[in-house]
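Whether sequence alone determines local backbone shape is best considered at the level of individual chains. When preparing material for the folding task, we compiled for one chain both its residues and its backbone structure tokens. The sequence in question and its structure tokens are set out directly beneath this paragraph.
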Amino acid sequence: MTPERPQGADAIPMPRATPDRGRGAVEPSQPPMPNPAQLYAALDLGTNSCRMLIAQPKGSQFQVVDSFSKTVQLGVGLEASGRLSRASMTRTVQALRICQKKIEKHGVRRMRLVATEACRRARNAKEFIRQVRRETGLSLEIIATEEEAQLAVISCAPLVSPRTEQLLVVDIGGGSTELVWIDLSRVTPEDRPRAIMRLHRGFHAQAENEARVVDWISVPLGVATLKDQFADVEDDAARFALMSWFFEENLSSFSPYNRENPREGFQIIGTSGTVTTVAASYLNLRRYDRTKVDGLQMTSDQIDFVIRDYLSLGPEGRRTDPRIGRDRHSLIMSGAAILQALMRIWPTDRLSVADRGLREGLLYAQMSADGVLEDGPFA
């Protein structure tokens, strides 16, 4: 689960009040309530987490007005039974009720509420969607893996370096992991971030001098499903090694897998709770700070150092480590196993950490479709 943003760490920071030095500090007035007609909501219901953003367009970006993030473990038991359990559905509906109240409180009318891997796989997903509609009034939409990958990619566009010619975007979820390899060599350096934004039109619409998707894959292994696969392995280090090699085996059909790629001009962007947690641990943050994590660049060696530290802590040490957090300690090693596999295949001096994902992609897509972004990124 991507840690919830602290107040004041939105996509566009709120201006700080400046003290009146002649009269002493003045209490800042309350910001005006946003016009409901300008608000958009985006909800991402995954295998492990339920996350929502409410935002308004501001310039070519957006400003977050309200947010919600909760671990609901919707996919618990799905690997064995093929169904969503009654307990997990109840927990998720309770979280969705909170989302519905926030949407109602702000008067939001434009929204997109999506569900991903757990609902794609569960035999009783349609029954669950009907239950959500009946008990909360929210209409969830199960999206395909390609759209999930597209949304993750466009959300990360602001982090693309003008120097990047080959880009790998990785979204490690609870039930699946999406990888998208993009060739930017035909795009002028200054236009590369915008070229990524334009991929909202699809991975196959590749005009001359545009970003070209070399290949993409959705691996049905995320932090929750990979952990479940090896739950019977008692030794901590052995379980980690098995998870990492098993994930790598599932990449064999991804076309860049066996290709040699130089580090120069190559960038990986990682978007997930795993990547942000590793970054927070590297920075030794006892309290998560999005402004320090989002956009941070790490090398393969720095990531490996953090993962080895996790292994040395053991399960109990990870459980009590404030850098990891109690919501993530049981899933961090399966996520780290995925991340280690990626670093083993594609070592890099530039893994950019993205505290962003489907919600941001959904917001950009909605706002672009309505033409409310200045200098719109999806032209």
In short: The longest helix spans residues 86-106. Confidence is low (pLDDT under 50) at residues 1-29. The longest strand covers residues 61-71.
